[in-house]
């Protein structure tokens, strides 16, 4: 029996292969978009893993520190540290900003961490080069994704920092590389005004008769002194004693300290459900559009190839070939085209993924699901061509 699918593929293999490559590029874009979504989720989880915290204590009524601004006094951690079940507690600040290095800017999340080394919450757990922060000021540890190297000097607003260590996969939920600096420096960079703003504020304060009372010596100096210092942080990272239930430890902080506390599960839900929800919906819609475009392309190609073999199909019907056999041949051709396209798409997605500015994570489960969807779309797309083939009159084989 003549295999129409195989015969047609061998007869016009160049056209078939190039069509499969074109379809594969489209499938590669689809797989890459799915990888971008997986990368967003992976970045969010990496942010939580790298913090080394079991609880995040933030300002009451906020979703901070990653989803909303949060501001706490920096001495509050002592009360948290005294609670039962708390093994370690550390202040931390987060600020996403442009970091100047040489003649270029790097978008990064600047993290202020307390002294204590890699075992303290908030510190990078490992380095791939250099050393940890040992000085109280003007040192930094950068993620390699920032493009910085050991010995580089970076500028954060008014101060210059030396890069003394490098780490890897320390990124924000948006994929921006992290730069770790001492907490005091981070507080100054985030909460203190620049020199011009301080000068203007001093002028306004001095001109205010309520604050500059001649009969109260020292009042104005005390007020001016508070304008050049800060005691605020964004959050307190809490590590619990092994075996302690996070909800049990969080309950007294919420009740007695009047603060918001998030467990690991709650914080992960916040990052995935709220921070990247819009991006996820956009990527999902994009995937649906790409799937429909792929199905339309496969349907058009198979339909065109089938119309080009009308006489051969008529001959098959004339010699008594069953419709089921003809439909199976067209279906094989559609599925074969889909498999070639999927193989090409998987290869190109893996090839160009490292060059994306954001993290692209291609997981085997998505690959398996993608293969199933491609085969299903090819089956559906072949129905139009099968319907056209079954309506061919056998008389066309003899020119009727």
Verbal overview:
With 400 residues, the protein is of the alpha+beta class. It has 12 helices and 12 strands.
Q: Which helices and strands occur, and which strands form pairs?
A:
Blueprint: H1 4-11, H2 13-51, E1 55-58, E2 72-73, H3 77-81, E3 86-101, E4 104-113, E5 129-130, E6 139-143, E7 153-156, E8 159-167, E9 178-182, H4 183-191, H5 195-207, H6 219-226, E10 232-233, E11 235-240, H7 246-256, E12 260-263, H8 264-275, H9 277-307, H10 310-318, H11 323-352, H12 364-390
Parallel strand pairs: 4-9, 6-8
Antiparallel strand pairs: 1-11, 1-12, 2-10, 3-4, 3-11, 5-8, 6-9, 7-8
Structural class: alpha+beta
| Quantity of strands, as a count | 12
* Average pLDDT rating: 86
Radius of gyration: 31 Å
Low-confidence stretches: none
Fraction of helical residues: 40-55%
Number of helices: 12
Q: Element order, helices and strands?
A: HHEEHEEEEEEEHHHEEHEHHHHH
User: Any idea what the shape is?
Assistant: elongated
Largest sheet: 10 strands, mixed
**N→C terminal distance:** 24 Å
Approximately what portion of the residues adopt beta-strand conformation? 15-25%
In short:
With 400 residues, the chain is α+β, with helices and mostly antiparallel strands. The chain contains 12 helices and 12 strands.
Q: What keyword list fits this structure?
A:
cell membrane, single chain, 12 helices, alpha+beta
